[in-house]
Amino acid sequence: MSSKRPKKELVGPWRSLHLVIWLLGLYILGSNNWWWPGILILMAISAIYEGLLQRFLPNAYEEQATVEAVKTESIPSQPAQDIAPPTPPEHHIDLLPQVCPSCNGPIRGHEVKWTGPQSANCPYCGTNLPMNKA
Fold first, then answer.
1. To 10 degrees, the CA torsion angle through 82, 86, 92, 93?
2. What are the CB-based long-range contacts (under 8 Å, 24+) for 98-106?
3. Label partner for 92 (CA 20 to 30 A): which of 1, 27, 46, 103?
4. How far is the C-alpha of 38 from the C-alpha of 26, rounded, in Å?
5. pLDDT, tens digit, 9 for 90 and up, residues 123-132
6. Are the C-beta atoms of 103 and 90 separated by less than 8 Å?
């Protein structure tokens, strides 16, 4: 677990205003050739703007999920192929053949496409599978 707080970013018109401050500041610095120490002053103005927003308008920020948090939330506890969807009780898995008569592919109840309670298609070639007699 990481003890880092989620990153917060400006949203809505506050973000646009921040961009305007930077663009206007860079224009003024470039047109008057005041690059040094002008860039430091522009950075200070930007930091003061963000500090005032955090202090007086905390809803101007939106928390961004960290990459670690997204990774841990999206990783399933088991691989997807190991998790079989529940088969409805009306499907008779025990009547399925072991292999497809057309392509000789292995037949598993959770992989076939059920077309009825006692009929299914092969997941590999799509052939309708003959059901074994019970």
1. 0
2. 100/124, 100/125, 100/127, 100/129, 101/127, 101/129, 101/130, 102/127, 103/127
3. 103
4. 9
5. 889 888 887 7
6. no
